[in-house]
Specification:
With about 200 residues, the chain is α+β, with helices and mostly antiparallel strands. Among the domains are: about 40 residues, no CATH class; about 100 residues, no CATH class. It has ten helices and five strands. Helix 3 crosses helix 4. The radius of gyration is 23 Å and the shape is elongated. It starts with 7 loop residues before the first helix and ends with a helix. It binds zinc ion.
Amino acid sequence: MYSTLPTAGLNTRLRQLVDAQEISAYRVFDGSLIEAELLTLGKSWLMRRYFPESYKRIRPLHQLLGTFVDLRCVNCSASLLEKPDFERLGAIIAFVSPAASDRGSEKDAIYWACKGACDHTMQRRYHERGMTTAWEDVSDLVMPNQFLLWLIAIMSGLRKGDTYSDEAFAALRQFIIAISQKVFREITDAERTRLQELMEMDG
Ligand SMILES: [Zn+2]
């Protein structure tokens, strides 16, 4: 139950109910508790349904594949997608290639890190091993149009002969799933039902 603040009368009544053992306990959800609940992973559908305008603005993470796929800075382990000020602090994804590789067509490794000190540490580490790095801003890639163009560029690169080590390809797949949780829209209730049917058919 939620209004701006529970009235003194309501508080008294709730206490009386507990004292009389008609209810065992109660909890008043204030604004911050409601917000915390709505922003919990896996609850974004609630937000889309009841607060569509805020949903568009906040763009919460949602679980696309049943479990949340995290993206942690390879240097300091900070969760990059869950950072509350994600857009301001920033994160990068970097493609690592041998320096001699023709325009970086050989992808040996892919990493993601906080922008700044963490990324510099990682860059140094790879440069010392004779590698070059090409990076993208993760906050650019969570824009749907930019994400799409980036995916198409990767597909075109593959067609032109870009190669990925097994490790780099697995990392790329993890990254795409992880940021899709922020890029893609939440499914509708009808789609949720249909998804269930599809999963049962596959199952
Ligand atoms: Zn970091």
